[in-house]
Amino acid sequence: MKKFFEEFKEFINRGNVMDLAVAVVIGAAFTAIVNSVVSDLIMPIVGVVTGGIDFADMKWTIPVGAGQSAITYGNFINAVIQFLIIAFVVFLIVKALNKAKDMTSKGKKAEEKEAPKCPYCLEEVAEGATRCPHCTAELPAPAKATVKH
């Protein structure tokens, strides 16, 4: 039982788990902000454009026996709009992060080396090898790494 808790403690202390927990908390807070943006800012504008239609009030009522049941498709429309906004914002964040990553890695790309390859079978060989471990061909010269461009 002690080993189980040690493994659990190691799992929890991994950076990935903590990063995921932070992402979930921030995601929940971000969802509340997006819900407010959609319901308080965007939907009133959409309502004006569509002639005063409030999607939240849109529903299809189904009479069931003595009572009624309703399919609130307006809420679905609001949820789709919220999803599109969240997806767009995540896209912008990922795009910005990729751009920043590309800008910081430009200097490092010149230093990266490509593993040497056998001229006969084009498989990777170890630097300094005189024979290919894949096709067993004797290499014309000891293999050397090349700089990536």
Automatic annotation (TrEMBL):
<comment type="subunit">
    <text>Homopentamer.</text>
</comment>
<keyword id="KW-0406">Ion transport</keyword>
<dbReference type="InterPro" id="IPR001185">
    <property type="entry name" value="MS_channel"/>
</dbReference>
<keyword id="KW-0812">Transmembrane</keyword>
<feature type="transmembrane region" description="Helical">
    <location>
        <begin position="20"/>
        <end position="53"/>
    </location>
</feature>
<comment type="function">
    <text>Channel that opens in response to stretch forces in the membrane lipid bilayer. May participate in the regulation of osmotic pressure changes within the cell.</text>
</comment>
<keyword id="KW-0813">Transport</keyword>
<dbReference type="InterPro" id="IPR019823">
    <property type="entry name" value="Mechanosensitive_channel_CS"/>
</dbReference>
<keyword id="KW-0472">Membrane</keyword>
<keyword id="KW-0407">Ion channel</keyword>
<keyword id="KW-1133">Transmembrane helix</keyword>
<protein>
    <recommendedName>
        <fullName>Large-conductance mechanosensitive channel</fullName>
    </recommendedName>
</protein>
<keyword id="KW-1003">Cell membrane</keyword>
<comment type="similarity">
    <text>Belongs to the MscL family.</text>
</comment>
<dbReference type="InterPro" id="IPR037673">
    <property type="entry name" value="MSC/AndL"/>
</dbReference>
<feature type="transmembrane region" description="Helical">
    <location>
        <begin position="73"/>
        <end position="94"/>
    </location>
</feature>
<dbReference type="InterPro" id="IPR036019">
    <property type="entry name" value="MscL_channel"/>
</dbReference>
<dbReference type="Pfam" id="PF01741">
    <property type="entry name" value="MscL"/>
</dbReference>
